[in-house]
Design a protein that fits this description.
The chain is α/β, with parallel strands linked by helices. The protein contains twelve helices and 13 strands. The protein has helices at about 10-20, 30-40, 45-60, 75-85, 95-100, 120-130, 155-170, 175-185, 190-195, 205-220, 240-265, 290; strands spanning about 85-90, 105, 110-115, 140-145, 195-200, 225-230, 265-270, 275-280, 280-285, 300-305, 310-315, 325-330, 345. It has a nine-stranded mixed sheet, with helices on both faces. A two-stranded antiparallel ribbon has the order 1-2.
């Protein structure tokens, strides 16, 4: 049984889910004082939540006619749950708009494009932005960054962290006294400490790490995003048995989808491109084939249109297909860094 079905207030359910408590079993070993501290509520309120959860757990495991079927949920509850979940901003107003407000938790989002288009920079940006405090419209979470290509640069992460803090300091939505308290948490060094970095050098390591993520996140409930840069790299070489590759990719995708749902985290998969022969000509398409395209909830393609960069919603069950242009500028605003420039992406 999920906490979204507990007979408690919507704000309490939202706080539980944001803190990583998505199922009744996740509440079974927590004490009222620990829960009160994590949710920033009173001990009495925490004790009442645990009492309700304990009662719901007994009903869920009973064999009586009133027992709820595990996993059953109404469409109304699903809609209400989706509306409660905040999204992770990309620091790009236009891109956030076509994404419905940003990268959604509990979903797998694939972002692909040609080399140099800005995939890694966007991945690092999301690893920083997920840490924006809840009071400032963020998730106040931590990030897992899985690097398969060796393209992660901590210097860029530091630059983006500093730019994010500067943006927050200039925001009209923050009172000065609130920002001083926030600034202690959002120091660039603290931001880097909240990014858990994994370097994997083979597809076997990548699969093993995917299997390990459930345990890691259960021990670090404040993780709110998992970024894989790129999901493709180790699966595009040394594979003579394509059927084996398909099975491995399918199994990994299922684990990532389950992870996103179970822990209410956003999973972002960065992908490369390849050539596909269609209607008498070669066209660029995202790598790993047509079957892989069904492994994500949303698919975003970054591409060039002349000298301009664009982001395009290629696939989504809830978002319409749309494009958002972005360009490189020195203006101090949205921060997604280009490898070859000290300027910033402005979407």
């Amino acid at each position: 049984m999920e906490v979204g079905r507990l007979p408690i207030s919507a704000s309490q359910r939202g706080k539980l889910i944001s803190a990583g408590y998505t199922t009744l079993s996740s509440l079974s070993s927590v004490s009222p004082s620990d829960l009160a501290r994590e949710l920033n509520i009173s001990d009495a309120e925490a004790a009442q939540i645990l009492k309700v959860a304990s009662h719901g757990s007994r009903l869920d495991g009973s064999e009586g006619g009133c027992a709820a079927i595990n996993g059953a949920q109404t469409a109304w509850e699903m809609l209400h749950e989706e509306e409660m979940f905040p999204r992770i901003t990309t620091s790009c107003m236009d891109l956030d708009n076509i994404l419905g407000g940003g990268i959604n938790c509990k979903e797998v989002t694939e972002i692909g494009g040609v080399p140099g288009i800005g995939k890694t920079q966007l991945g690092i940006q999301l690893a920083v932005n997920v840490q924006i405090p809840v009071d400032s419209g963020g998730l106040g979470g931590k990030a897992i960054y899985i690097d398969t290509e060796g393209s992660f640069m901590v210097e860029r992460a530091l630059q983006i962290a500093e730019a994010c803090i500067e943006d927050m300091s200039e925001s009209d939505g923050l009172l000065r006294k609130d920002f001083k308290a926030c600034q202690l948490k959002m120091h660039p060094n603290n931001i880097l400490e909240n990014i858990f970095y994994f370097r994997v050098c083979s597809y076997t390591e990548q699969i093993a790490l995917t299997n390990y993520l459930e345990k890691f996140i259960s021990e670090h409930k404040d993780v709110k995003i998992v970024i894989v840069d790129s999901v493709t790299f180790h699966f595009r070489q040394d594979f003579d048995d394509m059927a084996l590759r398909t099975r491995l990719l399918t199994g990994m995708a299922l684990k990532l989808m389950k992870l996103a749902k179970a822990f209410s985290v956003a999973v972002v998969l960065l992908n490369q491109v390849t050539n596909k022969y269609t209607e008498g000509s070669f066209q660029l398409t995202l790598a790993l084939g047509d079957s892989w395209s069904h492994s994500c909830t949303n698919r975003v393609i970054l591409y060039w249109n002349g000298n301009e960069r664009y982001a395009y919603i290629d696939k989504s069950p809830s978002l319409r297909s749309a494009s958002a242009p972005y360009s490189v500028t020195s203006k101090d605003c949205s921060h997604v860094w280009d490898w070859d420039s000290d300027l910033e992406f402005i979407f």
